[in-house]
Amino acid sequence: MTYCVALKLNQGMVFLSDTRTNAGVDNVSRVKKLFTWEVPGQRALAIMTAGNLGITQAVISELELQIANGGPDDITLLNAPSIFKVAQLVGETMQRVQQQYGPGLAARGEDSGATLILGGQRAGHPPRLFQIYAAGNFIEATNDTPYFQIGEHKYGKPIIDRVISVDTEMQDGVICALLSMDSTIRSNLTVGMPLDLAVLPAGDLRFTQNRRIDPEDETFRQFSEQWSQQMISAFAVMRTIDI
Prior knowledge:
By secondary structure, this protein is an alpha+beta fold. The chain has helices at residues 53-69, 83-107, 157-163, 170-187, 218-238; strands at residues 3-9, 12-17, 20-22, 28-30, 34-39, 43-51, 114-122, 128-132, 138-140, 147-151, 195-201, 209-213. The protein is built from 5 helices and 12 strands. It is globular, with a radius of gyration of 19 Å. The mean pLDDT is 94.
């Protein structure tokens, strides 16, 4: 399965995904689900994927082919006039892939469902964040709900709902996303490390972090253990409230 979360804050954007995929208890592997593109000084984009792996890989491959084979008048991720237009382009690509493979999968009783998160910024424009569905339609994150989750989202949602607003500082956003992922990993065996993290400060048009966190990462282990200890310690505080 999958868990991906993206935050759109006033200070910038945070993208975090796991890499586990499984087609049964004896067929578990690692697959990249976070993809980034940069045009220095012009734009930076990220896409995260969840759902049918064949569908999502085909969508990413099609988008890459558009970049590689596009002529000067062709619209691609790297030259679309707005992030909204990028969302339309990704949605149209999803729709074509679904039309090509969806009926065959359905005839075999397979689900072609897939969901993407797209976020980024173009020079001179604010950051934008979209969730794109299998039909190619999409919605945009707002100040009231400045985040999206796809995949196994229920375990990591409570901490985001309690902590995140558009005014949350970037470092706190990174911490919250990592805690959300840690909670999901602990509660659902179909989500697992390594993790891919990308951080895009508003106005920078480049990712200041774009890295993989491996299972052996000592800092993340300490991070996870400290959070567990803090939650245990919180019970001592809660006992002081007469309820």
